[in-house]
Amino acid sequence: MKSMSNYNDLVNVEELGNKKTEFNEERGDVCFYCKDCKKIVEVERPNPTGYVFVCKECGGKNIAIGTKEGIKDAYRIK
Ligand SMILES: [Zn+2]
User: Fold this and answer.
1) Distance, CA 55 to ligand 1 centroid (Å)?
2) Ligand 1 centroid to residue 8 C-alpha, Å
3) In a domain, 38, yes or no
4) How many structural domains compose the chain?
5) How many angstroms does the Cα of residue 53 sit away from the middle of ligand 1?
6) How far is the C-alpha of 22 from the C-alpha of 66, rounded, in Å?
7) Which residues pair with 43 in a beta bridge?
8) pTM for the full model?
9) Tens digit of pLDDT for each residue in 15-25?
10) Taking the C-alpha atoms of 27, 66, 71 and 57 in order, what is their torsion angle to the nearest 10 degrees?
11) What residues are neighbours of ligand 1 (ion), with CB under 5 Å?
12) Residue 48 located in a structural domain
């Protein structure tokens, strides 16, 4: 059974504060931001059923997940 809003569990961009993050899967544009590299990166997902993501660039797990627009807004990426 496929939950219709699994991705809500993945949003951990706490810097967004009180602003409600609308995470609409249909918008696509899911991306991963490494807080250590301070940029959008590709990630490994060592446990396919888990919510752990590892930055391919630095190997860190300090990854925020969200829509591209949400992350750009939160981290002021141009
Ligand atoms: Zn990184």
Assistant:
1) 5
2) 22
3) yes
4) 1
5) 10
6) 9
7) 55
8) 0.61
9) 554 444 454 45
10) -120
11) 34, 36-37, 55, 57-58, 60
12) yes
